[in-house]
Amino acid sequence: MRHPDPSRAFPIPGDPTFAFLKNVVTAGFIEVGDFTYYHDPDGPERFAERCVLQHCPAMGDRLVIGKFCALATGVRFFMNGANHPIQLISGYPFDEMAEHWRNGFDPRRHLPPTSGDTNVGNDVWIGNGAKILPGIRIGNGAVIGASAVVARDVPAYGIVAGNRARLNRRRFSAETIAALEWIAWWDWPVDRITRNIDAIRGTDIAAL
User: Fold this and answer.
1) Is 100 a catalytic residue?
2) Which of 40, 84, 123, 129 could form a disulfide with 91 if both were Cys (CB 3.0 to 4.6 A apart)?
């Protein structure tokens, strides 16, 4: 059994709607692991432009997405630039609106507090139109429901849905989750993953 080439931009022959993101994203603040794909009929290669919003280079935050993640059409990641400095009398971005309003502007003093990097674990499924707010951490194996608005961290193998997204349940028992985190099959060499593909897509953790 052969595995797909992780360096190939479009892994499904003849289908330009699926892309391995690592090979189509060039923005330096976005890091994506092998085999993570984004599906978009309008062109997944425009992921960084359409789906990663309000990034302010001065804030230095990053979007880190693990391996083997499945991102559905219309996923949105909001970076820390989406926040406004509410510690000031006004949070309005005067300096961006007119040249004379920029006089005396010190961006270091006006930057809002950062929530840090946004981190998505491995083997995460994010449903259609989900929105991830700045600085969120999504654990390995989590499922984010369609149109969810994720405003707090999601535990490993948690299933969240809604606006504001709430934890519905976990996919497995605590013991199984701990075992899966320890096994970390996504870090295996791809040839080993291929040899064990039936176990990985099965239901018996003992087979791993």
Assistant:
1) no
2) 84
